[in-house]
Amino acid sequence: MTGSDNHKPIPRSVLIFGAAGHIGGPLADFLHREAPQIKLRLVSSRPEGLEKLRADRPYAEVVTANYMDLSSLDAAVEGIEGVFVNSPPEMDEQIAMTNLVTALKKEGTLVHLLRTVGLQPEANYRRLPPAVREAKFGLPMQHPGVKKILDESDLPVTYMNLGASFMDNFLWMKGGLVRERKLIWHNRLIPLIDPREIAEVAGRLFLSDNHRHIGQFHTLNNGHDLLRYSDVADLMSEVFGEKITHDGSLEAFTKEYGAQFGPKLMEIWNFFEYERANEVVWARNDFVERMLGRKPRTLREWLEEHAELLLK
Predict the structure, then answer these.
(1) Which of 111, 124, 123 is nearest to 214 (CA)?
(2) What are 6-39's pLDDT values in tens digits?
(3) Is the distance from CB of 65 to CB of 76 less than 8 angstroms?
(4) Has this prediction a pTM greater than 0.85?
(5) What phi-psi label fits residue 262: left (phi over 0), alpha (psi between -120 and 50 degrees) or beta?
(6) How far apart are CA 133 and CA 114, in angstroms?
């Protein structure tokens, strides 16, 4: 990712939203390890989360900030050149990204903003079914608006489109695996990726001097796994050495996850149905491999690593 005509500044300071999460945390660790000269500032949206974040990552400055509070964003971005944004679900992105853009433009020090989104590539907003439209804080409704706000800001943005299911989502599904050796999940076709490698890609984008990433929309998957969950159950059977069955029915999904997802359960199911109706758009790509300089982790490798945790 280097060349004599590259001219993107490498940020000397990086602000990480979602630093306690499964992408933001590993991103902070990667940057600390690979570029310890970069000043890291980690954001907790909850004051009660500050001490744990400080204890987990003592090498970084830790601050409280809230997307809905412009003054807190002004303080958080002070002197910052790189920003990683991975926003929580059910947040009003229109307000949040408008506030962030306002704060960043006021400060005037930004050289690279990484923004995660989660969209089927080239998804057409007008084709969204009513059930998905009505979930106004869902990804298909919010993230096109996020991109529009950031595009129109003229800030130096790279979009990391998380066009894959996270491998560690299988940890949510361990209840059925432990009780019945059954994988209970909607049976749509989807690529997969380890979120630790999303974090490394983000880190390498920050450390790249290639200006061509600015303004780009990169869709990330591991370039290998494009599977239905019934296929995943078969793979689990091979890896675990015992039969794993699959149940992709709404009845089983409701029984298994009703308490966890509550009134959002049908919104989640409708989103999965929307993805299944448009699943032909998914394609494996090698962007993650090119950024990492190695083959990304396969689902088989991830399952081998987490077999004991998933079954007990």
Answers:
(1) 111
(2) 999 999 999 999 999 999 999 999 999 999 999 9
(3) yes
(4) yes
(5) left
(6) 26
